[in-house]
Amino acid sequence: MLTRIDHIGIACFDLDKTVEFYRATYGFEVFHSEVNEEQGVREAMLKINGTDDGGASYLQLLEPTREDSTVAKWLAKNGEGVHHIAFGTADVDGEAASIKDKGVRVLYEEPRRGSMGSRITFLHPKDCHGVLTELVTSAPVESPEH
Ligand code: V0V
Ligand code: CO
Question: Which of 34, 35, 66, 74 best tests ligand 1's pocket when mutated (most atoms within 8 Å of CB)?
Fold first, then answer.
């Protein structure tokens, strides 16, 4: 079961400036930030709300760390904007398998490491009406960075 919007991924050219926009305009603070070398992104998670499944919903601001990353490629073509949506689930492996059985391309054989120790996979946007869609199982404990 997919139980929440885990995050909306937003691609940007300058993470620090974009974080400042979300802080100054809406009052959203950075809950967590990290570099994910495998994905080629530097990212900031802005927590918007908790959810009744014990998880939370975030905005995920993404800046590419290298020219050949998926986000760099996307930014060069589209400019800044919404890059993907992510649904939260307690069982990313099971959800990926059952969605794959419905004929949607799942991009990874096995889920990979995502933000805050989560396990993530992606569905091909061409099989999802143009929306790059991520499935996420959060790590058990989510606490703000200090
Ligand atoms: C590409 N396309 C998209 C898209 N990216 N459509 C909607 N939303 C996107 N974000 C379209 C693109 O316009 C092309 O359509 C077609 O798909 C093929 O794209 P491409 O530019 O040739 O690029 P590919 O095929 O090399 O790569 C596309 C895929 C790639 C989706 C396969 O971006 C990918 O593997 N993404 C998953 C990983 C990822 O995005 N990581 C960054 C976030 P036309 O022009 O042919 O019609 S990392 C993250 O979220 C983390 C760490 C986290 O949440 O914890
Ligand atoms: Co994401």
Answer: 74
Say how many CA atoms lie within 13 Å of 60 toward its Cβ: 26
β partners of residue 50: 56
Chain segment 1-28, per-residue pLDDT in tens: 999 999 999 999 999 999 999 999 999 9
Ligand 2 centroid to residue 6 C-alpha, Å:
9
Look up the CATH superfamily of 2-137.
2,3-Dihydroxybiphenyl 1,2-Dioxygenase, domain 1 (3.10.180.10)
Q: Tell whether ligand 1 has an atom less than 6 A from the beta carbon of residue 71.
A: yes
* Higher-pLDDT residue of 49, 144: 49
What residues contact 100, with CB distance under 8 A and at least 6 apart?
A: 106
CA angle 63, 118, 101 (to 5 degrees): 100
Domain boundaries, the chain: 2-137
Q: Quote the CA–CA distance of 49 and 6 in Å, as a whole number.
A: 10
Among candidate residues 39, 63, 84, 95, the one labeled active-site is 84
Other residues' Cβ atoms within 10 Å of the Cβ of residue 68: 8
